Amino acid sequence: MTKPVANGVDAKALTAFLERIENLEEEKRALADDVKSVYGEAKATGFDPKIIRKVVALRRQDATKRREEQEMLDLYTQSLGLFD
Amino acid sequence: MTKPVANGVDAKALTAFLERIENLEEEKRALADDVKSVYGEAKATGFDPKIIRKVVALRRQDATKRREEQEMLDLYTQSLGLFD
Amino acid sequence: MTKPVANGVDAKALTAFLERIENLEEEKRALADDVKSVYGEAKATGFDPKIIRKVVALRRQDATKRREEQEMLDLYTQSLGLFD
Amino acid sequence: MTKPVANGVDAKALTAFLERIENLEEEKRALADDVKSVYGEAKATGFDPKIIRKVVALRRQDATKRREEQEMLDLYTQSLGLFD
DNA sequence: TCAGATAAAATCGCGC
DNA sequence: GCGCGATTTTATCTGA
User: Fold this and answer.
1) Is nucleic acid strand E under 7 Å from B29's C-beta?
2) What CA–CA distance (Å, rounded) separates B80 from B29?
3) How far is the CA of C6 from the C1' of E15 (A)?
4) CA B56 to CA B52: how far, in whole Å?
5) What is the pTM of this model?
6) Are the beta carbons of C72 and A65 separated by less than 8 Å?
7) DSSP H/E element including A5
């Protein structure tokens, strides 16, 4: 039976947090590998990975830009709300 | 029915690859958010996130080291197998 | 007269590099302060700094997007060049 | 002649602020490039950039610490001055 | 194997 | 003081 609380730190709780974090990061790593695989497949199919990366980047930028423009509008709305 | 192959690029296949990649990256983002949440919980429980990050980094280094040593062993095993 | 090369490291050259780097970073910090001042001025003039930040971000995104699209075109041109 | 004030926002003043900010940030970017160049030089001279970064970080910490201690002293001086 | 580019992590600083 | 966003630094990866 290990001491539940030693040196003022709850080792059990700490370990639980560590494991949750590490599991999540392991899953992330697995997904990153999957992404790499897809690029590999695309390349094998004749696509230039470099170009695909650019397309992905552009589409992400579009999404980001759209979101920012929406936030912009919200800010204006909010500001105008001051006169209500 | 859109042209399956236009300008020498198979738009359908390309789109499929793009979507697979983007879905995977979305999942990665979701996991990253989860990790952040766990750090938030840990902080609320009284742990210092900064220290937890250090611990995670240390354990990851250990794990990496162990993995590399294992790969080393595998290489040796493999090499020795050549003489079987 | 300090030794120009001790322990295999050229302390004089190292120091020179350090100072160049530190001077440049000091200049960066000064510019960052200037930026902050401008936001302060803008706020004092009645502008919402938050909105200005968004506008700056959007304009930067535009520039980035344009650049990326150009790189995209270059990539295609390059790819097509393979058939030359 | 464009309207100086439309929709309640002074477009001219806004533009002026935007340009000041963007110019400053452009200068920052230029300095960042310079820093990168110096690291490149250092590397070409045989120094490990990674180590140089560590040294720079350490010296910055020292400087910060020294500054804080000075502020501490100033506070004391100031406090003592109250009794003058 | 290394340089350059890309993406991830950590740190910093601001505004709320 | 805390979360959040931006910046900076570290690590990974790809291509030469």
Assistant:
1) no
2) 43
3) 49
4) 6
5) 0.87
6) no
7) strand A5-6
Report the gap between the CA of B12 and the closest CA in chain A (Å). Answer: 12
Other CB atoms closer than 10 Å to residue A17's CB: what's the count?
A: 22
Beta bridge partners of C6: C9
Task: Name the H helices within C6-82.
Answer: 11-44, 49-81
Residue with tokens 């979701």: B30
Residue B56 Cβ under 7 A from any strand E atom: yes
Q: Give the separation between CA C72 and CA D12, rounded to whole angstroms.
A: 35
How far apart are alpha carbons B58 and D61 in whole angstroms? 23
What are C70's two structure tokens?
């150009």
Q: Which nucleotides of E are covered by protein (CB under 7 A)?
A: 3-4, 6-11, 14-16
Mean pLDDT rounded to a whole number for chain C = 87
Angle between helix axes A49-81 and C49-81 (nearest 10 degrees) is 160
Would you place residue D73 in the very low, low, confident or very high pLDDT band (cuts 50, 70, 90)?
confident
- Separation of alpha carbons A8 and C57, rounded Å: 46
User: What tens digit of pLDDT does each residue of D2-35 get?
Assistant: 555 556 778 899 999 999 999 999 999 999 999 9
Assign 3-class secondary structure to B46-76.
Answer: CCCHHHHHHHHHHHHHHHHHHHHHHHHHHHH
The DSSP H or E segment spanning A28 is helix A11-44
Domain range list for chain B: 9-46, 48-84
Structure tokens at A20: 């949750």
**How remote is the C-alpha of B56 from its chain's centroid?**
15
Chain centre to alpha carbon of residue D42:
23
Q: What is the pLDDT of residue B78?
A: 84
Place of tokens 């140089």: D52
